[in-house]
Write a structure and sequence with these properties.
Blueprint lengths: L1 H27 L14 E5 L5 H12 L2 E4 L4 E4 L11 E7 L5 E7 L4 E3 L6 E2 L6 E6 L5 E7 L10 E9 L4 E9 L2 E8 L4 E7 L9 E2 L8 E9 L2 E6 L4 E4 L6 E4 L2 E8 L10 E6 L3 E5 L7 E5 L2 H5 L13 E5 L9 E5 L12 E6 L5 E5 L13 E5 L2 E6 L2 E5 L6 E2 L14 E2 L2 E4 L5 E4 L2 E2 L7 E7 L6
Parallel strand pairs: 3-9
Antiparallel strand pairs: 1-4, 2-3, 4-7, 5-6, 5-8, 8-9, 10-35, 11-12, 12-13, 13-14, 15-16, 16-17, 17-18, 19-20, 20-21, 21-22, 23-24, 24-25, 25-26, 27-28, 28-29, 29-30, 31-34, 32-33, 33-35
Length: about 475
Amino acid sequence: MKFRQITKFLLLFVLAALTISSCSDDEETTTTIGSSSDAQIYSFKLAAKPNNALDSTTYPQIAKTKFSIDQFKLLIYNADSLPYRTAMRKFYATLAFSTSGTSSIHLVYPDTIMEWNTTDSVDFSIATPKFLVTAADGLSKKEYTLDLRVHQVDPDTLIWAPQALSLPSTVKQQKTVLKGTSFYTFSIDEDNAFYIRKATTTSAAYDNKQMVSGLNANNVELGSMTLFKDNFYALDKAHNVYNSTDGINWTLKQSNVLTILGVVPGLASDGDEDKLLVITENNEFATFADYSSSMQIVRALTSTELDGNSVQKGVPFSVFSSSVNFDRKNQNLNMLAVTAGKTKSGVNSNDTWMFRVSDTNVLQVSVASKNSIFAANEGIVTFVYDGYFYALTKKIFYKSGFSFKWAEAPSKEQFVDPLVPNASGQSIIVDDKNYIWIFGGVTGSGSVPSTIWKGRLNKLYTK
């Protein structure tokens, strides 16, 4: 009996001891967490201190440049190129890593590798280094290539190139307009017939020419050809307006019209309020609302608009150039501008007249201050591009804001190719991809250049 009691006590003692030992083991057990293996770069920035005047212009853009990181290709790059002529010197780089940090970072050059402490500047004058990141665990590594992109051509330079598309040698006169993505070239050829040729903006050649019906080649004022709400309008020498839906078949629209000034943009975003502005034989401004509407008289021209005064000439009636700036949100910039040409009395002008529609649908007419920059010659051509008005006279471009204080355009916006002919009266078109197209014109010898030129500001190229 006593033996059984002793055995029970021993058993209880052993169990208690094991329990205490087990608890003691749990309390003394520790868990070791390994260092992070994340060697990824999460963001990248550059900054630089300018050393000279050029750096003061280009370096501020470096700090604003956004860099993208392709984690699959281990590539860091800037989608928007750094400014033209950015000098590669010592830049300050800011990198972001995981919260665990890194073990080390090395700059890998073609012929050397050096450790980088993240605060020293990085020398880009020798070469663009790669960034070798070692994670906090000291084992995991990632090597990133930096593709630092810089504009190789001045982005504010107009780049010109001759096109495969060209005018036939038989063309004596031409006027080209753009409808959608197609060029419609109206021409009077050597056989004194009136033709239309069509080509897209990507064509290498025109489609077969077609003879125009309903308009006489001997009477048409080719320079009056205007596209309005996807329909064509033209004037003849007998003061008749014709229109056409396809450019081939023409019908008489209105008589007693002296000139077609151009399209005055309305404020409606869909263009429904746009008007085609003309001047009648009674010296009145009048408009067409659309293809089927009749002409509506607006008001008579004032004496200044008709005859001019000691400061400026009157409104031009012929051989002028019209260009339209569509800005539906800003009434003051939403305008038709008519430059140069001849007044009703036959006097050459170099003034610019502006036509707007007010928010109460009233036609507003004004003239810019007298222009003395380029002469009052025939054949001046204007167009709107990159927020400015341009005028081309011979081979020289002039440029103006919306106050029409003309000045010669910078040299990098001029023609530099000696093959560009010295001509006047060209058709100049800006397409929906911001390309400028130049068709035809007349040289000093009276010939029509067959080469078609296309150009664009380098900064407007799609990245």
